[in-house]
Write a structure and sequence with these properties.
4-stranded antiparallel β-sheet, 30% helix
Length: 676
């Protein structure tokens, strides 16, 4: 009896501990705390830009590396410098890591001098150094599962593996046999590795980002170490990754051009940072020249293509979401509308009333608020409201269709393709949603996928014959056929810049040249994003980070070219806060491993610490306007000429929109961010 009581007491005690741990996780970073972040301390000690930050496992120490070739270890609890190391590098430091199980006494660093150095913190001595790379090293990766192994990613196109238990000497006349991944063999000699990251739960998986829109997820168990001779001319058949060892991830609309605003320059896309969610289910990409994207690793999404009528009917009838159809016809009978205006108006009102009844009260309020913003041509606010509503009712056809309409009107980078995805989802949920069908065709037209737009229009006319003679349909059909005829002879020769009509077969991925068929196939079959986060600008530096914030990854935080640190709600993807984090550019944002604390750095020679401040007056509406203005300004900034952006960074801010046709003082008035 006594033994049973002891067991029962232990079980209750363990349950209480589990509840407490869950409670702590929920309180670590919640919405009130995150939105009240403010500048707590500036850590001074560097004399150059701070390019990298790294917490130790406990979060008591923070290491920083700088253009001054120095590494500083900060005592965060005391908000003061603990150690300052002369790293021995002869170039800007881009990566620092605490070596696992070293009692935080060993730091590994990598720099622009193409070397990796292992330093003792307490003695300030160099334990080991490696000079295998031939160009700048941008990132390092380590894991507790293999505490003596480290990996480095360099702009020479290679990822190398180092075993610290084995002696290693680099010889200039002989290649080192420690190359784990060589992208120059199948991408080309211009490939540059910009970031590497190991999966938090399965470190055999490594995400690699380089100088193109793709994130490559490798299985290290299928790779073997090799060497690269600098004197050898690498052919398209050299160093191909084994079949099945890698998956590619990229936004479905890139590198093809989307949107109706003509680009004034050919934008260069670079993956500046990649990381995994705390549970390892998601892969986050900070894409230079575009936005932040999140991919589902275990639930891959294919990039959209337009189905034939038979395929479309089959997919709609087998959609596993909320079934609102019966025998392929919507229960409200849209196809049975009469041709008279009054009858059509009455039937549409019934449909709208029914759709509104299907929505919970909170979602309905958000929908109506979004509709009101849409009518006032505030498409940013409309998309924000629809995002909030879709978080509550993710299988609402009308909300997806409404968001698609707002995205079409806003037409920021990637908006047209996002609107196409929403239109497809709306049709999948409700195959009789005529507006969603029409918006599919409109999106395909704006994406310059004219043949697919024509196929979509023909399907629309077949499915909704009573609306086939409408002015909008006729006008769009005429424009599509005219452009198909105009660009048909130029389809293949213009595929390089993506500016002309592209056939469905050659539309995806091909504008970024691939050196062989295997690489071309991997790009064409790459997985599409799950969601995207808009509002930051990432065109000026190639070390800009974005990280999950909170034990459950409930927020995403990132730096921006505008000098701000930005915060998104992961569940709704809405930009909710921004803070002025640097006089010029915020590059690094590293959340504390266990408490609501963030370290940031950028062009300024300081490290900034951010923590929740005391609650102030309710300024929600004013802050929303500031965030919206910031997002608009950053969207303009990403489409600014590179020379103008460089001048802006140097202080000539008046030139940022000198060539913009839609310069608006109101949009720039909200650029200032809160500092505390």
């Amino acid at each position: 009896m006594q033994k049973r009581n002891i067991v029962s007491w232990l079980e209750r005690r363990e349950t209480v501990f589990d509840i407490n741990r869950s409670f702590e996780r929920n309180l670590q970073v919640n919405t009130p705390f995150a939105r009240r972040l403010g500048l707590e301390q500036e850590l001074e000690g560097h004399s150059g830009c701070v390019n990298c930050l790294q917490w130790n496992e406990s979060g008591e120490l923070l290491a920083s590396g700088s253009d001054d070739f120095q590494i500083i270890v900060w005592d965060v609890c005391r908000r003061m410098r603990k150690y300052k190391l002369d790293s021995g590098h002869q170039g800007n430091i881009f990566a620092v890591k605490f070596l696992p199980y070293s009692n935080d006494n060993t730091i590994v660093s990598a720099a622009a001098d193409a070397s990796v150095r292992v330093n003792s913190v307490s003695t300030a001595e160099c334990i080991n150094h490696f000079e295998c790379h031939t160009r700048r090293i941008k990132r390092l990766a380590i894991t507790k599962e293999s505490p003596f192994i480290l990996w480095s990613g360099s702009e020479d196109g290679t990822v190398r593996e180092f075993d610290l238990r084995e002696p290693h000497t680099c010889q200039s006349n002989l290649p080192c046999s420690n190359v784990l991944i060589n992208l120059t063999g199948h991408i080309g000699p211009a490939s540059e590795v910009k970031c590497i990251q190991l999966h938090p739960l399965n470190p055999q998986y490594m995400a690699v980002g380089c100088s193109d829109p793709f994130v490559r997820l490798f299985d290290r168990r299928m790779l073997t170490l090799s060497n690269v001779s600098n004197s050898k001319t690498i052919t398209s058949n050299d160093l191909q990754p084994p079949h099945g060892c890698v998956n590619y991830f990229a936004p479905g609309h890139l590198p093809s051009r989307a949107g109706r605003v003509k680009q004034r320059r050919r934008r260069h896309y670079v993956t500046t940072f990649a990381t995994f969610s705390p549970d390892g289910e998601e892969l986050l990409q900070n894409l230079g020249g575009e936005h932040i994207y999140i991919y589902k690793i275990n639930e891959p999404r294919k990039a959209l293509t337009f189905f034939s009528q038979e395929e479309s009917n089959h997919k709609c009838s087998n959609f596993n979401g909320m079934n609102r159809t019966k025998n392929g016809i919507h229960k409200n009978g849209l196809n049975g509308l009469t041709s008279t205006y009054e009858s059509r108006k009455r039937e549409l009102k019934k449909i709208v009333d029914t759709e509104n009844k299907d929505l919970p009260e909170k979602a309905l309020i958000l929908k109506l608020r979004g509709n009101d913003a849409f009518s006032q041509e505030n498409y940013f606010e409309a998309v924000t409201c629809y995002n909030d509503a879709l978080y509550l009712v993710p299988d609402s056809s009308v909300l997806h269709a409404n968001r698609a309409a707002a995205l079409l009107k806003r037409a920021w980078d990637g908006d047209i393709y996002a609107a196409l995805r929403d239109s497809f989802t709306a049709v999948s949920i409700d195959p009789s949603h005529s507006k969603a069908y029409y918006r599919q065709a409109r999106c395909l037209f704006e994406l310059k996928w004219y043949e697919e737009a024509d196929n979509c229009l023909q399907l629309f006319k077949t499915k909704f014959s009573e609306q086939a003679d409408g002015y909008s349909i006729k006008k769009l059909e005429m424009e599509v056929k005219q452009l198909i005829k105009q660009h048909a002879p130029k389809t293949n020769e213009n595929a390089e810049d993506g500016s002309e009509c592209e056939t469905p077969r050659h539309r995806r991925r091909l504008p970024h040249s691939a050196s062989n068929d295997d690489e071309r196939f991997r790009r064409e079959s790459s997985r599409d994003y799950e969601c995207r986060l808009l509002g930051a600008s990432n065109t000026t530096t190639d070390i800009k980070e974005a990280n999950y914030f909170g034990n459950n990854g409930q927020f995403v935080i990132a730096g921006s070219d505008c000098g701000c640190m930005l915060l998104w709600d992961r569940s709704t993807t809405n930009l909710i806060e921004a803070w002025q984090g640097d006089e010029s550019i915020v590059n690094c944002v590293q959340p504390h491993p266990s408490v609501c604390l963030v370290a940031s750095s950028g062009i300024d020679p300081v490290v900034r610490l951010w923590s929740p401040r005391s609650s102030a007056d309710n300024l929600t509406d004013e802050r929303a306007k500031e965030v919206e203005g910031l997002a608009r300004a950053n969207q303009k900034r990403m489409n600014t000429d590179p020379l103008e952006e460089m001048l802006r960074t140097m202080g000539y801010q008046a030139t940022i929109d000198s060539n913009s046709d839609d310069d608006d003082d109101e949009e720039n008035s909200g650029m200032q961010c809160r500092t505390n």
